[in-house]
What does this fold into?
Amino acid sequence: MLANIGDFLFRYRNLLFPLCLPLAFLPGPRLFDEALVAAALGFAASAVGELVRASTIGLQYIVRGGRDRRVYANDLVTGGLYSHTRNPMYVGNMLILVGLTIASNSWACVAVAIPFYAFVCAAIVAAEERYLRGRFGADFDAYCRDVPRWLPRLSGIRSTLADHRFNWRRVVIKEYGTPLGWIWAWGVLVLWNLERSDVGVAASRPAVLAVGTVMAAILAFWIFARITKKSRRWGSV
It folds into this structure.
């Protein structure tokens, strides 16, 4: 049943994460009295999630984008971060979402957005695992026995990093849109929380300047990566 739901959600997976973001504006009790505490902790959590995603792509990229809006994979990839957790990209996504819910400084957002997206990830992973088990059989079962589904196994991580050449160009080309999305969402949340705080935006100019600088920097990076990708300056990655 869960896998069937995952097959349906997989078709719209790129829309489901953005759909969680409006939940950040749900009214409710605050997580922290200080909006900047929520902003800092939220950014830290999302940054860890981005690091997980970037490391996954940079070490050994897996093509699991589907075909005709259905689950599909060419190969069973078990190297890189996939040797420590079977779903590092979803782990990264979840950490980014957790960070944004913290930055929202709203208990209502935390209570609704995190369970919703956790269910989405669990359903899609169930659909993917059903497909991979059907296609790769015993090899996938052995992989499942050796590697946890979610929580990363940290032992051997140093060896993994040493054994793989990190492809930072691939990270830039494949991943440049994700940090723009969550950092701008984070920035909007921080500014909104400052506006509705007792202090107000006008009295928080250093913080507003810092947030604006971060948002401008990531936009500049996005423009650079976009131009580079369109010009095919780096060739195949």
